[in-house]
Amino acid sequence: MIAKRVALELKGPCTVNLGIGIPTLVAEYMTEENIYLHTENGLLGVTDVEEAGIDPNLVNAGKLPVGEAVGASFFNSSDSFAMIRGGHVDVAILGALQVDETGVIANWAVPGKNIMGVGGAMDLLVGAKKVFVTMNHTSKDGSSKLLKECTYPITSTRQVDMIFTELAVFQVTGNGLKLVDLMPGATIGEVREKTEASFIE
């Protein structure tokens, strides 16, 4: 449901980087033409792949098998990050552990747990023209993941542009978070109850 809603925001032509988790599902719902998927380990023109056509050497940054579109380009990691840092990625879609009410995210480390590494998230936050975040609205214990201030290490001081959860869609504005959409089945009361961060309706 989250991935389907994010796909509605993508308008071609554009280059889109899909992060690990929910963001990888966005590709299944894209209907616009001329949207080119980028993975930071070195492929522009990522597509789905049928099980019979899986090449174990062809994976995205999350180590999941992918296919290559007609006209796809392969390049090394340094060139890929030059694309990101040079502002050539139009939209980055990332997962997050927490988001604060100014749109700053924490998505790479949970204090006290093993750290896998930040991956390309810091670079994408700095270099992508727009950043969309997909996440569950609450943690497993029911606590809000949209906070007044992140308690986990932040990924970048750059604010994201939009936040998508199973309950709501928020735009990040100069005045904080603005609720722009309720997800199917969600109520404004539920969103208020489960959101620690302040937001404008």
From TrEMBL:
Domain of life: Bacteria
Cross-referenced SUPFAM superfamilies: NagB/RpiA/CoA transferase-like
Record keywords: Transferase
Bilayer-crossing regions: none
Keyword match Isomerase: no
Record carries keyword Lipid metabolism: no
Family: Belongs to the 3-oxoacid CoA-transferase subunit B family.
Protein name: 3-oxoacid CoA-transferase subunit B
Organism name: Planococcus shixiaomingii
Lineage of producing organism: Bacteria, Bacillati, Bacillota, Bacilli, Bacillales
